[in-house]
Amino acid sequence: MIDENLLKHLNENEKEQLKSTLDTLISQTYVVEKEYKSLNESYQNLQDIITQIIESLPNAIWVLAKDYSIFLQNSKAEKLPDLLDQIDIEKNKFELEFAQHIYLINITKSSQKLVISATDITEQKRDERLASMGKVAAHLAHEIRNPIGAISLLSSTLLKKVATPNKPLVLEIKKSLYRVERIIKSTLLFTKGVQIKREMLPLLSLQEEIEDAFENYGYTKEIALEIDFPDVEIFADLDTLSMVMQNFLYNGIDAIEEDAYASGKVTFTYSKNKNYDIIIVKDSGAAIKDENILYEPFQTTKTKGHGLGLALSGEIVKAHQGYITLLSGEKGFEIYLKKGVS
Length: 342
What we know:
Blueprint: H1 4-8, H2 12-56, E1 60-64, E2 70-73, H3 75-78, H4 81-86, E3 93-98, E4 101-109, E5 114-120, H5 122-161, H6 167-192, E6 199-202, H7 203-215, E7 222-228, E8 233-236, H8 238-258, E9 263-272, E10 276-283, H9 309-319, E11 323-326, E12 332-338
Parallel strand pairs: 7-9
Antiparallel strand pairs: 1-2, 1-5, 3-4, 4-5, 6-8, 9-10, 10-12, 11-12
């Protein structure tokens, strides 16, 4: 506020100059205020952009202040508050296993802030592990294939020459060899990748393959196989689809073997809709223990098996432009195969 005594001692010219100076000062104040608002808006826009950037990143991000309090974090980081407590801020780059996940931790330090990123590499590690296991499995399969082939040939020769009372023993040997040969074939197909050649084929030819597989599989209980296939054609690759049916058949037999009952049954039926041929497989065996690892390679809850059957089946059905679902309320699966043009 201007002193009134000062104004009384000013002449008209001085008053005009003072008024002009005040007008200029007021005008400049408005300019400064406008620039401040503009600067503040730009700062807010920059903050929004930074927030959007860190929010769009696939990893969890924390920005810590000097006192290690959280200055900024994205939503992925907000969901992992306990992970931050496990991070050693003295390191720069390392892997950390937490809550059944593996994270790659990167820490960038400056005089003002600490930026921490955590990238979930669980799937990458899983793929690397599977690739390593696949290489080992493929190598072993190649090494085993030749001696198994020789033993199989010799057992066929022995079956023709052995006395009748001993033939069941040789037949059990052949069944065991059949199982090993199937595991070798599955392993090599899985590691090399599934390639199919689809054509229109009689569904009954698939039934013959299932029946032949049933005859060549060893089991100790009284197990019945029931197949109700109509005389129709489906668009499929017989060789690989036969392997799918074998896998589901053997899983059913193994489940019956593990069950408390003395007998059991595996059934195959056919259905269809507008787009898919559907094969339904059911068995009366033990319930599935863990549905989450059904299609995980080298994972199995059975006492028998190498953990590739359903994983390989899933890949083969996918190559047929189809998919597999669990039955609701019953023990079994539905296998959907994309129809072709006959």
